[in-house]
Amino acid sequence: MTRATARATPHPVSRPASRAARWRTDRWGAWLGWGAAVVLPLGFLAVFFAWPVVSLVLQGFFTETPAGRVLDLSGFAEVLSQDRTWRIVGQTLAQAVTGTVLSVLLGLPGAYVLYRCRFPGRTVVRGLVTVPFVLPSVVVGVAFRALFAPGGMLGWAGLEESFAGIVLALVFFNYAVVVRTVGGMWERLDPRAEQAARALGATPWRAFRTVTLPALGPAIASAAAVVFLFCATAFGVVLVLGGLRYGTIETEIWIRTTQFLDLRSAAVLSVLQLVVVAGALVVSSRARTRRERALHLTSDRVSAHRLRLRAGADLVPALVTLVVVAGLLVLPMAGLVTRSLRTADGAWGLGNYVALGTTGGRNALTVTVWEALGNSLRTATWAATIAVVVGGLVALVVSRRPRRPAMRRAVGVLDAAFMLPLGVSAVTVGFGFLITLDRPLGLDVDLRTSGALVPIAQAVVAIPLVVRTMLPVLRAIDPRLREAAATLGAAPGRVLRSVDGPLGARSLGLAIGFAFAVSLGEFGATSFLARPETATLPVVIYRLIGRPGAENYGMALAASVVLAVLTATVMMVAERLRGDRPGGEF
Amino acid sequence: MTHRTRRTAAGVAVVALLPLLAACGGDGSSSDGASGEGSSTVTLVTHDSFAVSDDVLAAFEKESGLTVEQVAPGDAGTLVNQLVLTKDAPLGDVVYGVDNTFASRAVEAGVFEAYQPAGLDPEVAAYAPDDLAGTLTPIDVGDVCLNLDDGWFEKNGVTPPTTLEDLTKPEYADLTVVTNPATSSPGLAFLLATIGAFGTDGWQDYWTDLRDNGVKVAESWEDAYYVDFSGAGEGGQRPIALSYATSPAFTVSEDGKSSTTSAMLDTCFRQVEYAGVLAGAANPEGAKQLVDFLTTGEFQADIPGQMYMYPADPGVELPADWTKFAPLADKPFEVAPADVAAHRDEWIEQWTATVVD
């Protein structure tokens, strides 16, 4: 025995035993670690989502009789036998499917131009594209109606109270989801596979169809699922632009619950909504897993090229992107910005922005808009923290591919479960909170009125986006890397730290940014939990626009512009943080 | 996972998050719910337009030794449904902002503890008739009326309409925008005005005529006022819009001498907003004190400037420009709160069938 090895292993006799013991503790540690990674997020989802929603829906299926609470499912027969119900289901599907298909078709060229090509101002356009995603829907609704109404810029097009008008607004909101999801994957795809296909004589279209498109498949399926859920549960914009004539399951649940307190019908409609959403998730998951595999990811420095307008190859996607960004995104937003610069007396200037330090015309607000902005930032910080911790754990668990089919299925269910908050009505969640979270689980805190529930409610909505941001990157890690690390003697914890950690952390910046942006814009669930002195920015915007007076209207628009700029900045910084690293879906 | 481990897991999750929860209150304000915090705190549940001057509230808190916490879970209609759903575990001690189009539903559901301040002015008490009497305390009132863009009528040489019937005449075709009673509280108030005017059997024909005369239905007040109403100055095309009797005070010209819009005072429905003590309140004594405070001269005088409603107390002096630009209707249309509670859903469905479908 040489001196060197002797020094390294001073007690050679005890070595096999200690190794076995260490292996056992590692294994136990791994089980414990994975157990916690599953239990903590599930517990969170159970308490702050499933319990409230299920309680409210169940309340609709039970009736009070002198003999006590009795299960009564007659609501199904009643609601399902009405023609109106099926018309509403049909409209929901039609709007959501059209909105999704259009978002994907228009988003693909956008993803290519913004993530595969280089041109001056690209970062700004990427930030700009995200803004609609978080604008308060009441403001977007009014902005679009101002365009579509007779006398508006697009008044001639007959879009007012039309299916086309609603679908355009849905694409406005969701374009960013497709561009970022698909773009994030596209920019990291190794271009050499496509180049090889071209060298072997394939036309550009054939090379795209047979090489690039299949590689993008999981990202497209994932984006489509998220967009579909957003479209199927869109509320404000559908109501403002379409009215009850174009009512969807979501608007109907809202009216049945908040206006009629008809929980019986609302419960049936909630079940219908769940069926639609679950169907969409199954379809998307099938499409994703069939195609998902380890990809050879690379740096965008390698893959991106200068935009080639002359050569023609980039001309069509560039034109499509230009038309969408200028016509669909910038036009309504420009209307907002322009109007925000016109003061109450009709002059141009920053008067509305100066007024953000006040409580509005005739005291429309209880806090100034800047105070509300402070509240929003504070709340969003908490919400983003919770969302990234919980969502990060879910992404880590779901990124594994267990060998046993039962485990594999369990992982799939976990993935889908955390998507559900996007597909369930905010009013069901909000009202569910009210009936369940009064001193939950023996705590001596009325969570409903404590203000603590606001960041939690926002986190519930942000978690699915965090998962979708981090998951593709974690999944694209070649499992052989982990196997190699394990073969070289790394314990499971060490593999996680040294393989998944550094690669996964690369999508973390973007996940934080997205979670932050989503909570900044969240209004639905927040509005049911608002405390006047800690009102958030979307809540005060909603209040301002609900008051007469040119001053209040101008302030509402100025505050929306502030929210938009803030969001765009957050997204741009998040993207910078990511630097030269494989990106996530958003 | 068994039921029990799931419960435990949920508990673990909540406990793990507790430090977070406690820290989320922000601004050092207490993050605890008021109820259960002893008798020094009283929680006021209200809708999103409640407002009071800081000094008026501070004076009350100092005098009574109470701390007032506010919770605003939604608009007026939503609020009542939330109260009904949470009646076994109320959100606070006092509610303010339940109006006469929704109040009876809440009273029927047993949301309130019967209480009215001693010595309430009979004229004020009269705003809470029948089943509301003795349970709810009227705090403020306001009229929902059609508003006119006076400049439009002057410019186009059209005589402005004055009555509900006028709106069905050909000269006013395609000029009116109202809001949907199923989704907007002024919309419901206006539907009630027409029911008050034409009776429970006559209003359907009136709305058929309105529809045939090109009335436009927007889903929310802001939508109707800012997008469709020409008087808001935002490019709208319709000079007759549903709003409030007080709205013309927001369109007063720079010199303060005239307003560019006016309310049609013969088309109004009077909304009354009430306060009440919630059944099961953690601090019922504090709740009563708070209701008393809402009827005092100090708070009543604060209402016009803060909430833009009329104080229920007729003895309170109004700001000068109110009498000029925002007078109340002499004879608003009325429907008894109990009738509204009994028929509202049915009326809204009939309305939808008549006007929308």
List the helices and strands and how they pair.
The complex is a heterodimer of chains A (586) and B (357).
Chain A: H1 3-8, H2 15-61, E1 62-65, E2 68-71, H3 74-80, H4 83-116, E3 117-118, H5 122-134, H6 137-148, H7 163-186, H8 192-199, H9 204-232, H10 236-242, H11 249-259, H12 263-291, H13 300-303, E4 305-306, H14 315-340, H15 351-354, H16 369-398, H17 405-417, H18 420-423, H19 426-436, H20 447-450, H21 453-476, H22 479-487, H23 492-505, H24 508-521, H25 524-527, H26 537-545, H27 550-578
Parallel strand pairs in A: 3-4
Antiparallel strand pairs in A: 1-2
Helix pairs in contact in A: 2-12, 2-16, 2-19, 3-12, 4-7, 4-9, 4-14, 5-7, 5-27, 6-10, 6-14, 7-9, 7-10, 8-9, 9-12, 11-12, 14-27, 16-17, 16-21, 16-24, 16-26, 21-24, 22-23, 24-27, 26-27
Chain B: H1 3-23, E1 41-47, H2 54-64, E2 67-74, H3 76-85, E3 94-99, H4 103-108, E4 112-113, H5 122-125, E5 137-149, H6 150-156, E6 176-179, H7 185-198, H8 203-212, E7 216-218, H9 221-228, E8 240-244, E9 261-263, E10 269-278, H10 284-294, H11 297-307, E11 310-311, H12 320-325, H13 337-356
Parallel strand pairs in B: 1-2, 1-3, 6-7, 6-8
Antiparallel strand pairs in B: 3-10, 4-10, 5-8, 5-9, 5-10, 5-11
